[in-house]
Design brief:
about 210 residues, about 0% strand, mainly alpha, globular
Length: about 210
């Protein structure tokens, strides 16, 4: 059991990477108030938890039923992530936000960001979903291992949430210029990550 817990925790921390994801979160929520950031952080973490929980419980069966391969999931997630990277690099999101009404910003925009791209594919991305399916397979019908697996998912996403909350203080320290620079740098990194998702998927399909 101890080896299983160590393996699960290490796998989830490496794939989800709360520190790196909190840096991306900072760029995605640029221009939002603290309350809006907190709402995005909470919603994104909760949505990701239930997505990964679902992946662990029945992800393999669902993909098999729909005829979808894990490679196709990686490619789709990469392409979607690439669109968000473009918004960060070229600042399209803030330009669009200026043309929206305040109500739309505080409700629709915040909820959209929490679901995509924060919850999926950043937190519950192709890598995390694939890992959950494999880890659930390792747990098998062993109930204590299943409980440990889902408890560790909750723990890692709680850590992500706490990192997201701390990102607001980082934003204050960086200032307007620092946030703009960091947002574009992270957008480029995010684009590279998205392309890597696509490459990995293609390798599996044609490898």
């Amino acid at each position: 059991m101890q080896d299983f817990i160590s393996s699960v925790l290490a796998t989830l921390l490496v794939i989800i990477d709360p520190i790196f994801t909190s840096a991306i979160f900072l760029g995605l929520t640029q221009g939002m108030s603290k309350a809006q950031r907190d709402e995005v952080a909470l919603r994104g973490s909760v949505i990701a938890f239930f997505l990964l929980l679902g992946a662990g419980v029945g992800g393999a069966k669902l993909l098999l039923l729909l005829g979808i391969s894990l490679a196709a999931l990686r490619i789709a997630g990469g392409l979607l992530l690439l669109s968000s990277a473009g918004e960060m690099v070229f600042d399209w999101r803030s330009q669009r936000r200026e043309s929206l009404a305040e109500k739309a910003i505080t409700i629709d925009h915040v909820r959209n960001i929490a679901a995509f791209p924060l919850a999926i594919p950043l937190l519950a991305g192709p890598g995390a979903i694939t890992a959950m399916i494999l880890l659930a397979g390792r747990a098998g019908t062993d109930v204590p291992k299943q409980i440990a697996l889902y408890a560790l998912i909750a723990l890692v996403l709680l850590l992500c949430y706490l990192c997201f909350r701390a990102a607001d203080r980082i934003s204050f320290l960086l200032g307007v210029t620092g946030r703009a620079v960091i947002s574009r740098i992270l957008g480029i990194i995010l684009a590279a990550l998205a392309v890597q998702f696509v490459i990995d998927g293609i390798k599996v399909l044609f490898g």
